[in-house]
Amino acid sequence: MRPEVIFELLQANETLIVISSAFSVLTCAFFVYRALLYRDPLADRLAGIAVRQRSLKADLVAPRTRRKKLEAIGLMRGLVQKLQLLKSQEAKKATLQLSKAGFRGKDALVIFFFLKLVLPFVLGGLAILFLYVFPILPLASGPKALVAMIAVVLGAFLPNLFVKNTTTKRQKALRKGTPDALDLLVICAEAGQSLDSALKRVAKETGSFTPEIAEELALTSVELGLLPDRKTALDNLVVRTDIPELRNVVNALSQTEKYGTPLAHSLRVLSAECRQERLMKAEEKADRLPTIMTVPMIIFILPPLFIVLLGPAILNIIDLLVKM
Length: 324
Hints:
83% helix
C-alpha cells in the first residue's frame, strides 16, 4: 500500500484514533491508580456491619409511632420516589438480589433503580452522538439505528448483569471459605463458646483471607443478639447467601438450638462433607481438563508440529519435482 493511501486513511479516521488514544490513556491511568491505591476490604465490611447493627437497634428499640420516613438524599432518591419504584413488587426482588451481591446500604436500591432508568438514555444518547452527530464509523442508516437500539437495551440490562456477576463471584468466595470457617467453628464449639461468641471469633479470624464469609457470620452474630427469634437470624443467613453449604450449616444449627444436640459433632460432620465436596469438584475439573484442552491443542499445537515434521520432506519433494 502506498504511503499516500495510508495517510488518507489516517486522516479519514482521525477522530476514531483520537478517541481510542484518549480511552487507552484513561484506562491505563485508572488501572495504575487502582494498583497503587490500598483499600482494606475488611474495614469497609466491618463498617457496613456496624451500620446494620445500629439500624437493627433503632428498629427494635424505637416505637413504631415515632419512626420517621426516610428523607430524600438527592436527585436519585427524588426521581425514584416520584416514580413510586421503591414501593413496587420489583423493589423486593431487587433488594434480595442486592443483598446476595453484598450491597446492603440504605441507598443501594435507590442507586440501582436510578441506574436502570438513566443508563438507557445515556448509552442511547452516546450512540446517537457518535453515530449521527460525529460519525466515527461509516455505517448506513439501518445499522446505525440497530446499534443505537442495542445501546439502549444494554443500558437497561447492564445493572442486572453487574449485580448477577457480583453475586456469582461472591457465592463462589463463600463456598471457598465455608470449610475453613466450619473448622474454626468446631474449635470454638469444643472450647465451650456459645454460638454468638463463636461466630464473632470466626468472623474475626477469617476476615483477612475470606472477608465475604466473615461479613456474613459477623452480621448473623449481631442479629442473633438483637432479633427476638434466633431462627430468624439463621434463616436470614440462608437468604443472604443462597448456597447449599451454608444452608446445611443453618439446618444443623437450628436442630442444635431446638433439640439440644452436640454442636461440635454436627459441625465436624458438616466440615468433613464440605471438604469432601470441594475435593470432588476439584477432581471433576481435573477430569474435564483433557476435553477442554483438545480444541486448543488442535488449533495451536498440531499445525506447527505438522509444519516442523513434514515441512522439510515437502520442500525436498518440491525440489526433486522442479529438477525433473
